[in-house]
Design goal:
Blueprint: H1 2-20, E1 31-36, H2 44-57, E2 62-66, E3 79-82, H3 91-94, H4 96-104, E4 109-112, H5 116-127, E5 131-135, E6 147-153, H6 154-158, E7 180-184, H7 188-195, E8 203-210, E9 214-217, E10 229-234, H8 239-248, E11 252-258, H9 267-279, E12 284-287, H10 289-295, E13 305-307, E14 310-315, H11 317-328
Parallel strand pairs: 1-5, 1-6, 2-4, 2-5, 6-7, 7-8, 10-11, 10-12, 12-13
Antiparallel strand pairs: 3-4, 8-14, 9-13
Helix pairs in contact: 4-10
Length: about 325
């Protein structure tokens, strides 16, 4: 029964894509889209941040265009979360991921609207942006793009069934619209072998790593917090991956406390987190950057809290940079 429903869902996804891509709107400035086939976390947000930083480092003024999923206070107007110099919107107006990106990307602009075309037009006309990064954009085919990047795991390919039988938003053949793939949790060679795709589609590797812990509240030697038993608190799509990554780099996790993806933390949650930390003997609570922007308003609690940022490097670095410059027709010498 699920397979029959999946076939119907897949046909619907194909039809939606074909109808929407017939007359895409093109912005004046180049667009790079970052997206995926599967629901859930595939490191899109840190990849968006990495690309925006790269573009800014080349002397461009990038905008990040996001739909602002599950905002508390949605608006009919385009929300400028930040311009190149300042934060301009609240967490409630922005959504957790755009707000997090805005904090992490000085010199870039972050805008939110369900119609990314409108956000891009405002970015060009009022904020003088020179290039756009379309967040979670693979299915947003109404907006034309110059580089279409898709993040893909080996599991996406080997168990590639669409909803509700599997985790894919679209059938695998939608990858024919991708300009390049980013291999997540696998190598480019293994992904290419699983796909059986021809060599004309570049496959790069998205390598993630955690940066040093930063204090959110409380007093302790946060440079050594990874040596202490800690409680991991997170509301992301794949919390097991976060826990696995931290353990692999030497963190001592006393316990993991999870909430639904994009959960809006309340005061009661903060009290429950403190109680859990005490119960499991944790010296501190650690969380992700996406969680931190929502949790910090309920701090301090009676346990130190730190954020462990996640960063992604797209490898090979020089090859990816050359490919992206060419796709976006940017000056190879930079600014």
């Amino acid at each position: 029964m699920l397979r029959a429903a999946a076939r119907l869902y897949g046909h619907g996804a194909n039809l939606r894509r074909e109808l929407r891509r017939r007359t895409p709107i093109r912005l004046d400035r180049p667009v790079v889209s970052v997206g995926n086939l599967a629901v859930g976390g595939r490191n899109k947000t840190p990849v968006v941040a990495a690309i925006a930083r790269m573009l800014h480092g080349w002397g461009e003024r990038p905008s990040v265009l996001s739909r602002g999923y599950r905002r508390e206070s949605p608006s009919r107007d385009v929300v400028v979360v930040r311009d190149a110099d300042h934060m301009r919107a609240t967490l409630a107006e922005s959504g957790d991921e755009p707000f997090m990106l805005a904090r992490e990307l000085p010199g870039c602009c972050v805008l939110v609207h369900s119609r990314r075309t409108r956000a891009g037009q405002l970015a060009e006309q009022e904020l003088h942006c020179t290039v756009h990064v379309l967040d979670d954009g693979f299915q947003h085919v109404q907006l034309a793009r110059d580089a279409n990047l898709v993040l893909l795991t080996l599991d996406d390919v080997l168990h590639g069934e669409v909803l509700p039988a599997g985790r894919l938003r679209e059938p695998l053949h939608a990858l024919e619209h991708a300009d390049a793939l980013l291999a997540v949790d696998t190598t480019a060679a293994r992904l290419r072998m699983a796909l059986g795709r021809s060599a004309d589609v570049p496959i790069f590797e998205a390598r993630r790593h955690h940066g040093p812990a930063r204090a959110l509240s409380g007093t302790m030697d946060f440079s050594r917090v990874h040596e202490e038993p800690v409680l991991l608190v997170t509301a992301v799509a794949e919390p097991a991956r976060v826990a696995e990554d931290l353990r692999a780099t030497g963190w001592r996790l006393a316990d993991v406390m999870t909430f639904r993806d994009h959960h809006r933390y309340r005061g009661d949650d903060a009290r429950q987190i403190a109680a859990r930390a005490r119960a499991v003997g944790a010296s501190a609570v650690v969380t992700t950057a996406k969680d931190a922007v929502k949790l910090e308003r309920h701090l301090p609690i009676d346990v130190p809290v730190a954020v462990v940022p996640l960063e992604v490097v797209i490898e090979p670095v020089d090859e990816f940079a050359s490919w992206l410059r060419a796709r976006l027709s940017l000056d190879p010498e930079g600014a």
